[in-house]
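Q: Hi! Curious about what Response regulator looks like structurally. Here's the sequence.
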Amino acid sequence: MATRILIADDQVMVRAGFSALLDAQEDLTVVGGASDGREAVSQAREFKPDVILMDVRMPGMDGLQAARAVLEEGSSPHVLMLTTFDIDDYVYEALRIGASGFLLKDAPPEDLISAVRVVASGEALLAPAITKRLIEEFFRDRPVLSASSRLDRLTPREIDVLRLVARGQANGEIAATLYVSEQTVKSHVSSIFSKLSLRDRAQAVIVAYESGLVTAGDPKG
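A: Let's find out. The predicted structure is below.
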């Protein structure tokens, strides 16, 4: 079945251009177009899209507020944030609430198509190591946090795995570091996501920093 896409952007020409581009792909279909955050939330409920292209800055309810509302409802679409400006604090907040990545509006058409396919497959658009660098930069000038009781839900081995996820390591690298099988690592990661109510590895990295498990500038972090 074709991936169902909702485009939320307050500029009519942007919506029309993206819609024409994506609808031309055999495996993609645009099911809705919203001009602001509230309309995006309403259409997400109505059309049940697989992927939402969500502009960050829209009148009334902005893209971050709309993304949060959609993701908290549990319908589980993959949200790809669109922006005309370079990465800043919006990236951190978008990843924190469960967005699958960011894309500049002026990216080449093939990048947009590829990004939609990547997030539709359940993968984060940003690689773990890149996510780590972005989040570490966000925390660099902020106070070091103390350990959070939230991590008390995890076993000591799950703590080890979460720390390595926060360092940007993939499952294979974690398996080699801990001398366990990759399947064992996958099981631990799945358990961490379940216990901490996380959608993906990007959120796991954020939790590790927010809880004080790792800190910006720490050579082991």
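A: A fun detail: The chain has a mean pLDDT of 85.
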